[in-house]
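Q: Structure tokens for this one, please.
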Amino acid sequence: MSLGSTIHRLRKERSLTLEDLGERSGLNPSTISRLEDDQNPGVGAVTLSKLARVLRIDVRILYEAAGWYSTPPSAQTRKRQRLRDEELELIDTIRSAPTPQVRRSLLATMTKLAQVARDADAGRYQQPGLTIEGASSGGGGHDKDKDVSDHS
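A: Here is the predicted structure, written as tokens:
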């Protein structure tokens, strides 16, 4: 049985709609629908864990249905899969925007954020007062010894 048919069967057995499962798991119903239709081959362990929790099953059942044979993928594979899941959530958010103007605005903002993230990864993004965690420009984090309050 495929992952999609397993999720669909379990959801129906529990009399849950796509919206119910989405609300309880924190996933977009359209993402769950794509999973049930086996249209998301890069599903991540986090997504499967959320579904397993709501469906009240051992997550290994979904791992096996996904072809993982009870062993989650490597950390790097999980990171790629999580990014795919997050990208699909962003796409769903854009598609559900109320007007074409709002969709264009969301897309433009996300495009700018993606460029900032690429620049930060390359150590090229520096803005006073802004720390991007993991940026290669070093230092990141908070100065715990620095008192920033005004005691005047």
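A few notes: The two ends are 69 Å apart (CA to CA). Residues 134-152 have pLDDT under 50 and may be disordered.
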